Amino acid sequence: MEYQKIAELLFPDVKLTCEEIFAKYPKRNLKEGQVVSRFAPSPTGFIHIGNFFQMFISYNLTRVSDGVFFLRIEDTDSKREKEGAIDVVFEILNRFGIKIDEYQTLDGKDIGNYGPYVQSQRVEIYKAFAKKLVAEGKAFPCFCKKTEGKEDVLKLRENKFQNDDEKEYDPCRDLSFEEVKKHIDNGEKFAIRLKTKNTGKERVKFYDLIKGEIEAKANAKDFVLLKNDGIPPYAFAHAIDDTLMGTTIVVRGEDYIGSTPMHIELFEALGFKPTVYCHNPLICKLGDNGNKRKISKRYDPEADMRYYFEQGIPTTAVLEYLLGIINSGFEIWRMKNPDADFNEFKFGINDITAVAPIFDLVKLADISKNVISRLSAEELYDSWLNWAEEFDKSLAAWLKENKAYAISFLGIDRSGAKPRKDIANMSMIKEYFSYMFFRPTLDEVAEEDKDKFNEFMAAYQKAFTFPSSNEEWFALVKEVAGGLGYATDNKAYKANPEVFKGNVAKACEFVRVAITGRKNSPTLYEIIKSLGEKETRERLNVKK
RNA sequence: GGUCUCAUGGUCAAUCGGUUAAGACAUCGCCCUUUCACGGCGAAGUGAGGGGUUCGACUCCCCUUGAGACUACCA
User: Could you list the residue range(s) of the whole structural domain that residue A390 is in?
Assistant: First the structure.
């Protein structure tokens, strides 16, 4: 009775009952095995790769089970919130081609029957459940000033079950109606705390999709259900929303394992059925000391999902890399199905890796190279231009003016069954093909080769006629080289290298450096063709 | 400190008690193309340590060690 009165005193305006709320959220009609899961980001203005990883696991779980994937915005912490942050969430999801079944649109319309899908619009619901818990004596108002930094109060709370003979209780845990009323009449703000029924000795068990059954110490903290601004922190919102919205598997980072016992007790207090969790491993980096550490926004640019846009790494490459981490069977599947869409890959929901992986940018680059190698010259041009329009305006302008030329060099060694694989992202192309824009320098010619280089280039330039085939081009290099004492027979060269100035490979290297400034480049004949006769002749006319 | 999680080569990993311990990336070598690549072939490299259980353990149990995470009116 007393509790009932306190609840009424605390929440005079809350008329909505929990029964009424439940009536609005009917149970989902699911077929056997169908998963309902969600992405629940906080609108902080960026998406961390760890969140994205978690989202992608959720997404795949629902995808392979033909389930429901929804987006819930967790904007309960106004301090961390950033203007326009929700747009960022949608932008990233869209760019990666992640399809959401239920969400709230930017102009506030809920798609789906379990909304609102934005937590700040659900406070009436949270308050109704908080009121119910207070009325049942399972929660209580706390009038302490925020406990951040208040170590004495925190200590007291920690010790509340040890020192009960001293009555060193939590100062607010057992307030009478009159005492509460006094505080309220004083105009004091209050938080709502759970009145834990545990004493610190109990154990709980819960099921985790990745780790199996986990047993841990039960919660014994009177944690906060409603902050003194009336808004719930994560735990309370999670319990209510995921129950109401019919989430069947809660995917979240393994940093939440420690707080799961809190959530278990909360579900119990609320009379909810516990959910299945899937605590995914945290993505790590190798620290300077050689140890793993959580990948962090502060030190690792690749922790922010926008990094991949800035670098121009294909989104499918990122997704495929992540999918390979989630389930290593994907890599094998990919080799067997090189051209299939990754969405066709199916895996069991119990096959998710349990180990925190070190994020491997080199491997990502390899996947990315494969993805890009499958593009036609026109497709590559389009993605490059697309990227440039966002991150390199002057390049974009140049690309539009020189479309045919750009496509001509982007297409080098691209067609055929074995395309080269050396472009890992859009941001590197300009540098990679810098010789298509500018005359190269001759830095790559070694000092000791200087005279040979000059001698060969002089002769070659004089003999040069613009070739009409790769064979013709090569024949001339060979002829000139042979005339100067280079080996035209590789076997002869290998047998007695000291007899010759070098082999034809060396001669090719000279031409390559003269034309491109590098020892590595795509097929020279194709480059010459793109460059045109005039430019080619001028580049051949060099001296180191 | 307490609680929890994890532990196969440099990295990602397969094996769900029976074995020459897959494969991918990276590294190195060879072959192909008398060029660069691509591709093909090959090499090197792993079960943290110690106890059990078992005919037999990388696989199950325990201890140690190491690493990570959590321990807020943040998520």
Answer: 377-416
Classified as helix, coil or strand, A329 is helix
pLDDT tens by residue, A63-118: 988 999 999 999 987 777 788 889 999 999 999 999 999 999 999 999 999 979 99
A293 CA from B4 C1′ (Å): 17
Residue A223 within any structural domain of the chain: no
A363 belongs to a structural domain:
yes
What is the DSSP-derived secondary structure letter of residue A358?
Answer: B
Which bases of strand B have any atom within 7 Å of the beta carbon of a protein residue?
Answer: 2-8, 10-14, 22-26, 34-39, 67-75
- Backbone torsions φ then ψ of A279, nearest 5 degrees: -90, 105
- Can you tell me the ipTM of this complex? 0.91
pTM score, whole prediction: 0.90
Residue A141's DSSP bridge partners are: A192
Is A477 among the domain residues? yes
Å separating the CA of residue A460 from the C1' of nucleotide B46 = 53
- A365 and A497 share a domain? no
Q: Is the CB of A277 under 7 A from strand B?
A: no
Residue A251 and residue A263: Cα distance in Å, rounded?
14
A423 in a domain, yes or no? Answer: no
Q: A96 and A176 share a domain?
A: no
Q: Tell me: cis bond preceding A301? Omega within 30 of 0 counts.
A: no
Q: Which residues neighbour A150 within 8 Å (Cβ) at sequence distance 6 or greater?
A: A144
Q: State pLDDT tens for residues A177-204.
A: 999 899 999 888 999 999 998 888 888 9
CATH number at residue A325: 1.10.1160.10
Tokens of A292: 């793993």
In Å, what is the CA distance from A38 to each residue of A45, A282, A380? 19, 18, 34
Query: Which residue is the nearest neighbor of B66, CA to C1'?
Result: A291
Alpha helices (H) in A159-256, listed in sequence order: 177-185, 234-244
Q: Rounded distance, CA A196 to CA A269, Å?
A: 9
